[in-house]
Amino acid sequence: MSTTHMPWQLGPGAAWRPQLDGAIARAGGLGFIEVIAEAVGAQNLPAGVAAAMQRGLQVVPHGVSLSLGGAERPDRARLAHLASVAERVRAPLVSEHIAFVRADGREAGHLLPVPRTREALAILSENVAIAQDALPVPLALEHVAALVQWPGAEMDEATFVCELIERTGARLLLDLSNLYANAHNHGYDALESLERFPLERIAYVHVGGGRFHDGVYHDTHADPVVPGVLHLVEELFSLADAPGVLLERDDDFPPEAEFAAELRAIGDAVRHGREHRVRA
Amino acid sequence: MSAPDREAYAARQAQLLDALLRGDEPPAGFDAAQAGAAGHSLRRKRARAAAHVWPALALDLGDTFDARFDAFARAVDAPSAGGPLADGLAFAGSLPPDAPRSDDARVELLLARASLRRRGVFVRPLWLRRPRRRLLLVARLPAVGALHGSFPGARRRRG
Predict the structure, then answer these.
(1) Dihedral of CA A52/A54/A58/A59: which sign?
(2) Do residues B10 and A104 lie in contact, with contact meaning Cβ atoms separated by under 8 Å?
């Protein structure tokens, strides 16, 4: 599988957070950062993000509030903000989630899953098309970690994501921690599922930390990356290439050396996976 | 294919969200244990965000913070404006009068009330006992923001 049709290459990346500004500035070899679009003001960029641009890093705005999986059509003002951030950081693409974050005027405060039904696919596809029309760059969609599943699923997650990507022409933001979490918590094989995701449509890959609590895996982004997720990174790159891989950490920020070691471990997994693919 | 029924879809999402936020039984067909874990995770995320900007209050409540905030979050929606600071203010207001409240937490509370004030002038005095007896004044002035100062000021060390 090749990525020659991709107009961009991102490389190793880190999710930019104010608390990680120094660690990211001093991490060698990064190609891009992701910035939460809603955390960027209407006028100015965070100084650390502007500095990263100056150092030649690419910036991908990551939206968390469009609620593309919601019953309402995406809000014009939120879309305009995401488009504005994309233009100001000269983004190669933006990303958002296959999720809903509000219903009936109430905010969930986090990303909630949608039912895996034809009806939900139809609504999502309409919402994604509205978003794509309002955005100046391609949109990548991320599947989420879901502790609760809707009853009456008409297809599994990989099939649902394939259908959505095919209908909308969006790119895939493959989150290997979310894939790991859902497979572990809902009892299916992560690798078998991974092989059926639309890997040729990957824009970039997310890797985040988590922890087990009472047998349930929680995608906390506040703990180290577990070995099972690093293993999936290696498996992915033994199957296909991807333009970028990004580490997400949102809380309980580690010492800089630990953060750098996690970036290195991800880089090692990517390299090992690629070696397997070349030999195969 | 006919147009999808957005209204019915909205109703189902609202039902699920309501059950998760309130910690109630989920709608028919959902796994109760899964929904319980998902709801707990939503409320815990909200609690962590509030604790982050209310460190003195979180310290005062110690191990009881999580359980107290969870009970509050089940009953009261997150505010539409003001973020975790406003959420923590509503939480602080919901605590019983006998809840522990250190001087630091009283100052934190007054500063939050001052900075969340949208208009007009806000001035409140506060008597503090430790580390020394003093009067703290917290104010919010238009175009200036929240300020505070204490009387007498910090004692200068001699020599």
Answers:
(1) positive
(2) yes
Q: Which of B9, B35, B48 is nearest residue A119 as measured by Cβ atoms?
A: B9
The DSSP secondary-structure symbol of A119 reads H
- Give the pLDDT confidence of A102-139 residue by residue, as tens digits: 999 899 999 999 999 999 999 999 999 999 999 999 99
Tally of CB atoms within 10 A around A277: 15
Q: What is the DSSP string of A1-41?
A: ---TT-S---EEEEE--GGGHHHHHH-TT--EEEEEGGGS-
Query: What residue in B sits closest to A70 (Cα-Cα)?
Result: B10
Ranges of each domain in chain A: 11-279
pTM assigned to the model: 0.90
The Cα of A120 is separated from the nearest Cα of chain B by a number of Å equal to 8
Peptide bond into A198 cis (omega under 30): no
pLDDT tens digit sequence for B19-45: 999 999 999 999 999 999 999 999 999
- Short-list A9, A6, A60, CA closest to A33: A60
CA-to-CA dists, residue A33 to A3, A91, A139, A271, B2, angstroms = 20, 10, 16, 20, 41
Tokens for B100, please give them: 């522990």
Q: Is pLDDT of A184 > 90?
A: yes
Q: If you search the block for the tokens 């998902």, which residue do you land on?
A: B38
Chain centroid to CA A237: how far? 16
Helix, strand, coil fractions of chain A, as percent rounded to 5: 40, 20, 35
Burial of B142 (0-12, 13-18, 19+ CB in 10 A): exposed
Interface of B with A (CB under 8 A): 1, 3-7, 9-10, 12-14, 16-18, 20-21, 26, 28-31, 34-35, 37-38, 41-42, 45-46, 48, 77-78, 80
Name the closest residue on chain A to residue B52, using Cα atoms: A251
Measured distance CA(A85)–CA(A39) in Å, rounded: 10
Q: Which of B4, B21, B34 sits opposite A119 (nearest CB)?
A: B4
Helices H / strands E in chain A, number of each? 9, 12
**Around Cβ B28, how many Cβ atoms within 10 Å?**
7
DSSP H or E run through A106: strand A106-112
Please give the CATH superfamily to which domain A11-279 belongs.
Divalent-metal-dependent TIM barrel enzymes (3.20.20.150)
Distance CA(A184)–CA(A190), nearest Å, equals: 8
| Dist. CA A76–CA A130, nearest whole Å | 9
